[in-house]
Amino acid sequence: LSALPWVVGTPLAGNALNSIAFNGSYYVAVGDGAAVFTAPYSYTSSGGVTAWNQVTSLPFGAGTNLNSVVYDGSEFVILGDDGSITISGDLVNWIARTAIGGAPALNALAYAGGPVYIAVGDGGAIYRNTVSGITSAWTAVNSGTVQDLYGVSYVNGMFVAVGAAGTLLTSSDGITWTAQTSNTNNNLRHVAFGLTGAGAGSYVAVGDAGTVVSSTDGIAWTSQAIPTTQSFYSVCFGPDFQFIAVGTAGTLAYSATGTDGSWSVANAGSIDLYSIVPADVFIAVGAAGTNVSGK
After folding, report:
1. pLDDT at 2
2. What values do phi and psi take at 250, rounded to 5?
3. What are residue 292's DSSP bridge partners?
4. Which of 67, 9, 10, 72 is nearest to 34 (CA)?
5. Using one digit for the tens of pLDDT, what is the confidence trace for 26-54?
6. What is the pLDDT of residues 235-292, one digit of tens each?
7. Lower CB count within 10 Å: N or C terminus of the chain?
8. pLDDT of the residue at 262
9. d(CA 8, CA 35)
10. How far is CA 233 from CA 25, 54, 83, in A?
């Protein structure tokens, strides 16, 4: 994958696309100005999809900025920066669910089986919901920090939240959070986990100014040397057994191990990329409706 050219698709909208999710059959991308796009997966098609379709019947206003989308095993769940929650199981009918009331700007959503949903946002905000379909109120959780939280993932049986000034928190249940030393003062944006060989695994968190930190246990983190100062907004570990991070100016970095000295840098277009999803066809989305694919 890393050695192949990436396909730059026709921009989907004038607004930023902030997040993308995949359920094995369909991609869903969401962004600013209530942008929601869906596409069926097609390995043989250019760009990895047959066509993108914009969803126009939505239970929120046109000014709503959508920051995160996840798939929970039966439904796609969208988080707005205003705390709005919208779900769909068929990609046709989108239903408003219990919003996160009184919250600051919310930035990211994660899902763990159980179910447990975790949303994070500015000022160290963390909210938790454990009802399937999100039909009950969210509970505020003490994060132990006032730093803005930009990303959260459920990886390898653990929630990992990352944010401003190198903030990195871990939790096994989404209730009790422990601050870990990330060994960076730069903003961290996203985290992924991958099995990198012989049963060994690595957590990788990425952020501003080419920041990449990694850990084998989620507790002790080491800063990595990356041959770029471009900022990274998202990282994933794919079925091709490598980490891929995406960021500003179409920059992507890839590594089979996530360890120091193993990273190479390439480009997928020249527009900022904010989110990438791993599949047989990797798709990343970003500023001004940008979408790129690699396989």
Report:
1. 52
2. 70, 15
3. 8, 284
4. 67
5. 999 999 999 999 999 998 887 889 899 99
6. 999 888 899 999 999 999 999 888 888 899 999 999 999 999 998 889 999 999 999 9
7. N
8. 87
9. 19
10. 25, 24, 21
What's the pLDDT score for residue 282?
92
For 63, 96, 126, 201, 243, the CA distances from 83, given in Å and listed in that order, are 13, 11, 12, 34, 30
Q: For residue 32, give Cα distances in angstroms to 20, 41, 115, 143, 190.
A: 13, 23, 27, 27, 19
DSSP class of residue 62?
Answer: T
- 19: which 2 tokens? 């997040």
- What are the pLDDT digits (tens) for 118-141? 999 999 999 999 999 999 999 999
What is the 3-class SS of 79-100, one letter each residue?
EECCCCEEEECCCCCCEEECCC
CA atoms within 13 A on the CB side of 41: 18
pLDDT-based confidence at residue 85 (cuts at 50, 70, 90): very high
Q: Which two tokens stand for residue 235?
A: 């990282």
State the Cα–Cα distance between residues 143 and 249, nearest whole angstrom: 33
Classified as helix, coil or strand, 250 is helix
Among 121, 92, 108, smallest CA distance to 274 is for 108
The DSSP output letter for 246 is E
Lookup: tokens for 132: 């399937």
What is residue 5's predicted lDDT score, i.e. its pLDDT? 74
Residue 263 · residue 212 · CB < 8 Å: yes
Sheet order of strands, 149-155 included: 149-155, 158-163, 168-171, 178-179
